[in-house]
Amino acid sequence: MIENRPFLNLLAHLTLMLGVAIVALPVWLAFVASTHGPTDFMSGTVPMWPGPRLVENYSRLLETGVSTSGTPPVGTMMVNSLIMALSIAIGKIVISITSAFAIVYFRFPFRNLAFWCIFITMMLPVEVRIVPTFQVVADLGMLNSYAGLSIPLIASATATFLFRQVFLTIPDELTEAARIDGAGPLKFFRDILLPLSRTNIAALFVILFIYGWNQYLWPLLITTSADYYTIVAGIKRMADAVDGVPQWHLVMATAMLAMLPPVAVVIGMQRLFVKGLVETEK
Amino acid sequence: MKRTIFSNQLLPWLLLAPQLAITFIFFLWPAAQAIRHSVLRQDAFGINTNFVGLANFRALMNSAQYLNSLQVTVVFAISVTLLSMGFSLLLAVAVDRMIRSTSVYTTLLVWPYAVAPAVAGILWWFIFNPTIGVMPYVLDVVGYNWNHMTSKTDAMILVVIASAWKQISYNFLFFVAGLQSIPASLREAAAIDGAGPVRRFFDITFPLLSPTTFFLMVVNIVYAMFDTFAVIDATTEGGPAQATNILVYKVYFDGFVGQNMGSSAAQSVILMLIVIALTAIQFRYVEKKVAY
């Protein structure tokens, strides 16, 4: 702060409070809706304060789901989402950290070519090549499987660059010392590189977990069996199905459950989250 | 470049193998297929396939629907970028004045990043629902009859708000970091010279923030063009009357619902060129920074 201006400070606080209120409004309304019964919406508008049916609505969703919508219990969808998010996050980290190790610590023919192949994936988001990618996955028989949900998404140029950057800052003396002590490449990787990049791995994990959990188009296309529905993709199916018989309280309760895990991760690990966000954009 | 390296020749390929395999099977091969199909045309039964050169691209350029989609995408991307960045900058400037409460406000503003675009779409769709939503009720009081299922403008406003909301936290975090990297001495000097807060913002803070602003502009345009598929699908599904049918939604719709492979592939190729151009801009200019 440059100078003390009480009026401006007040204005700044008011702006921020209004901003926080606007940002929180949709979630507050969803939460309120999720605690009411189905008939509370018939009066014309949504109530603004929580109702009495919090426990009833949520326990019903988690155990049996909305049978009329053809979606499985929300509990099942959340487990599917968790498996997908963890596979994507861990898969991306594992294959990227080994790629970065190969590119930084070895000299071999076509090293640059390999690097460029990985770089190009950054320019091919799944949305723009969705039809042929779906075809490949269908031909490989990976529809309706956890492998199909995660493997096609785990190539990562961003993560490879991040680890490459981290490795380049590790002093050569460390590698020399390890070699003099007789450590081979794999021992060096396990005992020196991995421990040194621990916080980077954690920060990246937070970002990638959110990325994996929030996938929508991909799971929507490749899961036709309800056993593999993820919650983010399932919620749309639910909202469509209840269009005739509005069960807003259940749709909104599902929305709350769908955002709970990633939001909890961001708030609980805020420092790592911000670090990951800044690093992946370099 | 490392001076100390390991001499194995086989090991690096083994380490790279998983990443390269996935890249080839799920990225390069499908992209090549898209390029191949973009110059072919299948007959209605999928039996004969002919080489048609650039006919698919020419058909797109003459298609009123595609040009409409292009226009919708431009309006949508610019609106999302301006709305989200403007709102975030305002909040970031306000937080920059705070000393003790910065972290509290930051925590309260960063979490929408974690909300899935599809869920963000559902939440705003609920708020703006013409029969039971809160906003149509409020708007009705001031005499505006909201209905995004029939009004093109209303539908566009809905998807812009839902998409911009989700991006606020990201922009906010980068603006705050940008503001903190501006040396306080510059603003102090201006204050001593008699410049008020508004003058200081426009003559010092905002120009010095331009690297951050430019970087965020590219990121937001990429986000609005490619990551908002879920928002559109969860709210308007491209309607009414194509009013929110952005390019990525149209590729999906023509490919899967319309089954028009040639046209969909040509659209994929155009989108790839757009991503390549945006990535090139990002690497070419953002690295060097818009500096003073």
Automatic annotation (TrEMBL), chain A:
Keywords of the record: Cell inner membrane, Cell membrane, Membrane, Transmembrane, Transmembrane helix, Transport
GO terms (BP aspect): transmembrane transport
InterPro entries registered for this protein in UniProt: MetI-like, MetI-like_sf
Domain of life (superkingdom): Bacteria
Pfam families per record: BPD_transp_1
Membrane protein topology class: Multi-pass membrane protein
ABC transmembrane type-1 domain segment(s): 78-269
CDD domains in the cross-refs: TM_PBP2
Keyword Cell membrane: yes
Span of the signal peptide: none
Compartments, record wording: Cell inner membrane; Cell membrane
PROSITE patterns: ABC_TM1 (PS50928)
GO cellular component: plasma membrane
Transmembrane feature ranges: 7-31, 82-106, 113-131, 143-163, 192-213, 248-267
Family assignment from sequence similarity: Belongs to the binding-protein-dependent transport system permease family.
PANTHER family assigned to the protein according to its UniProt record, in alphabetical order: ABC TRANSPORTER PERMEASE PROTEIN MG189-RELATED-RELATED (PTHR43744), SN-GLYCEROL-3-PHOSPHATE TRANSPORT SYSTEM PERMEASE PROTEIN UGPE (PTHR43744:SF8)
Subunit field text: The complex is composed of two ATP-binding proteins (UgpC), two transmembrane proteins (UgpA and UgpE) and a solute-binding protein (UgpB).
Functional note: Part of the ABC transporter complex UgpBAEC involved in sn-glycerol-3-phosphate (G3P) import. Probably responsible for the translocation of the substrate across the membrane.
Name of protein: sn-glycerol-3-phosphate transport system permease protein UgpE
Native organism: Paracoccus siganidrum
TrEMBL record, chain B:
Major subcellular site: membrane
TM stretches of this protein: 70-95, 107-127, 155-177, 208-226, 265-286
Domain of life of the source: Bacteria
Keyword Coiled coil assigned: no
Subcellular location: Cell inner membrane; Cell membrane
Assigned keywords, A-Z: Cell inner membrane, Cell membrane, Membrane, Transmembrane, Transmembrane helix, Transport
GO terms for biological process, alphabetical: transmembrane transport
Domain ABC transmembrane type-1: 70-282
Gene Ontology CC terms: plasma membrane
Membrane topology: Multi-pass membrane protein
Quaternary structure annotation from Swiss-Prot or TrEMBL: The complex is composed of two ATP-binding proteins (UgpC), two transmembrane proteins (UgpA and UgpE) and a solute-binding protein (UgpB).
PANTHER family: BLL4140 PROTEIN, SN-GLYCEROL-3-PHOSPHATE TRANSPORT SYSTEM PERMEASE PROTEIN UGPA
Function: Part of the ABC transporter complex UgpBAEC involved in sn-glycerol-3-phosphate (G3P) import. Probably responsible for the translocation of the substrate across the membrane.
Family, as annotated: Belongs to the binding-protein-dependent transport system permease family.
Full protein name: sn-glycerol-3-phosphate transport system permease protein UgpA
Species this chain originates from: Paracoccus siganidrum
Recorded name of the encoding gene: ugpA
